[in-house]
User: Which sequence fits this backbone?
């Protein structure tokens, strides 16, 4: 009797071959990965790509389970996977496949933007248009239509989503898309080509296929319930505790378990941060930690001298917690603001290293966090991707380890004159460059103007363009701004943006200024935010008002972060308060 399932190891490029279509069945859950999950996958991929002195290694993406839709069971083991068209329903692996497809689309759009299209990517994503379209991965409706418009369609990953009401899955798709775009955009054409080839040729999966939902369910239970996959910390625990003397085993285990309990889901990432602060960022995490443990005297010494204090400080960083000092309020506020840079933990190693070494001086810790906050937000406004930010923060770590003066003119904490000019340039139409970053800048301005932290959870707030992007043909806005080019410039101006609730945003739409003002500021329950104060005082909204407010906001950002166009100088603690087109790419210094 022929087997009821087949298994084959293959490179990702073979699974995404032109003859195959992967569908999402009705019983499958929607896209559930968040930015943190996508970050871990991309970090693992790039670590494997850059390991061993540039010698490209292979990477195992795990097992994926499919149901055959158009083949019978007796043929499962007789036809090679790559030679016959197949329609596959994905049972296990949808989150990885969706994230990888988003990554392919991001690379494709960046290649197209720079005039160097990659001929391999359209095949992996899917070819054809309209009724002849054959997408490699199809999601369930309504996510499929959304995914096509905001990810799969050429150029879609660089455009802003216009949908007012997003499902949780759609919001996660956008979050992962925007994060991957931020991570990849600083790679040049050759680096993107190398990453693409690595993904398609060197990343392998085990494809298990069967026929029928019952068989697939049994196989799924075997793959997922017979044993929990090992995390990095599971491997490290066995490795490090294996060398601990029997007499110290109970204490070492309790210390390990306490750190794990404190940090929860973030425990695994702590080892990556430890690797970086000890100067081993070029190694795999497990290899790096093993090397550190050998250097300090073994597993027991690592757990007691490295892991234990690092876990306590990392817990305070994650919780934005500090006490027993006149500087504690400022320290907690700055940690909160750094934490707003969701999904980007590149700023954590320098904070962890500084705190572990000099954290007993709260005034110095407050100064350092203020300087790092300025750098972290500055790099994001510049549009630097993951690699460039990691390099910059790595220079800060190296400077701390070397004992350099971080308050001097040559400090890696400082922003160069050209970077400051570019930051000012990018701020003027920041929302067109990065909508999430524009929202964070407005939130920071709001707290700065208020003199203290005003907002905790801010997921309900959104950015509204007072002069709308697409005013109707007979809209009064077109009379005030008859020139399309001028209208576009003023629409994307920082001075044209306000922070409002999502419900208010939906109601305001393309209303004229008087009615929009009533909806946004005069309705019952409307938040009164300092960042919107200038707008509330105006009786009309024309070019002059937009320019005046932009200038006002830029002046306040200069007071907050010392980002004037004067030559860069070290940032003192007292300098900060306690507190184009949509498809255009961020401009970076030296671009």
Assistant:
């Amino acid at each position: 009797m022929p087997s009821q399932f087949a298994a084959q190891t293959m490179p990702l490029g073979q699974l995404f071959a032109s003859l195959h279509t992967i569908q999402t069945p009705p019983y499958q859950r929607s896209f559930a990965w968040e930015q943190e999950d996508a970050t871990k996958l991309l970090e693992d991929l790039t670590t494997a790509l850059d390991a061993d002195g540039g010698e490209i290694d292979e990477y195992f993406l795990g097992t994926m389970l499919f149901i055959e839709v158009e083949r019978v069971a007796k043929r499962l083991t007789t036809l090679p996977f790559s030679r016959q068209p197949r329609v596959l329903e994905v049972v296990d692996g949808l989150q990885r496949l969706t994230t990888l497809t988003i990554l392919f689309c991001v690379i494709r759009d960046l290649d197209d933007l720079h005039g160097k299209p990659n001929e391999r990517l359209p095949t992996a994503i899917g070819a054809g248009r309209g009724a002849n379209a054959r997408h490699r991965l199809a999601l369930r409706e309504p996510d499929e239509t959304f995914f096509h418009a905001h990810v799969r369609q050429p150029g879609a990953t660089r455009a802003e989503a216009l949908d007012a009401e997003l499902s949780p899955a759609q919001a996660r798709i956008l979050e992962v898309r925007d994060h991957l775009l931020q991570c990849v955009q600083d790679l040049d054409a050759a680096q993107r080509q190398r990453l693409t080839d690595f993904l398609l040729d060197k990343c392998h999966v085990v494809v298990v296929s069967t026929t029928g939902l019952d068989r697939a369910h049994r196989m799924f239970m075997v793959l997922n319930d017979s044993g929990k996959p090992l995390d990095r910390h599971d491997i490290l625990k066995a490795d490090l505790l294996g060398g601990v003397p029997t007499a110290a085993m109970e204490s070492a285990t309790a210390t390990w378990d306490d750190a794990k309990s404190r940090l929860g889901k973030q425990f695994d990432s702590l080892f990556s941060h430890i690797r970086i602060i000890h100067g081993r960022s070029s190694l795999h995490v497990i290899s790096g930690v093993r090397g550190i443990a050998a250097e300090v005297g073994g597993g027991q010494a690592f757990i007691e001298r490295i892991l234990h204090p690092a876990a306590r400080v990392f817990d305070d960083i994650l919780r934005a917690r500090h006490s027993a000092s006149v500087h504690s309020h400022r320290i907690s506020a700055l940690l909160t603001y750094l934490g707003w840079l969701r999904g980007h933990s590149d700023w954590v190693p320098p904070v962890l290293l500084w705190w572990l070494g000099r954290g007993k001086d709260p005034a110095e810790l407050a100064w350092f966090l203020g300087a790092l906050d300025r750098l972290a937000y500055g790099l994001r406004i510049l549009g630097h991707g993951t690699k460039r930010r990691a390099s910059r923060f790595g220079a800060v770590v190296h400077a701390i380890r070397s004992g350099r003066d971080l308050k001097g003119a040559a400090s890696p904490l400082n922003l160069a004159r050209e970077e400051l000019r570019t930051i000012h340039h990018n701020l003027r139409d920041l929302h067109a460059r990065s909508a999430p970053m524009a929202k964070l800048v407005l939130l920071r301005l709001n707290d700065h103007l208020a003199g203290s932290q005003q907002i905790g959870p801010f997921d309900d707030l959104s950015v509204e363009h007072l002069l709308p992007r697409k005013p109707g043909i007979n809209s009064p806005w077109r009379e005030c701004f008859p020139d399309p080019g001028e209208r576009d410039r003023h629409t994307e101006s920082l001075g044209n943006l306000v922070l409002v609730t999502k419900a208010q945003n939906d109601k305001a739409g393309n209303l004229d200024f008087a009615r929009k003002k009533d909806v946004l500021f005069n309705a019952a329950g409307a938040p009164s935010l300092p960042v919107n104060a200038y707008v509330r005082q105006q009786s009309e909204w024309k070019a002059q008002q937009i320019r005046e407010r932009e200038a006002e906001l830029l002046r306040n950002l200069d007071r907050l972060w010392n980002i004037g166009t004067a030559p860069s100088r070290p940032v003192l603690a007292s300098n900060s308060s306690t507190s184009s087109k949509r498809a255009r790419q961020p401009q970076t210094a030296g671009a």
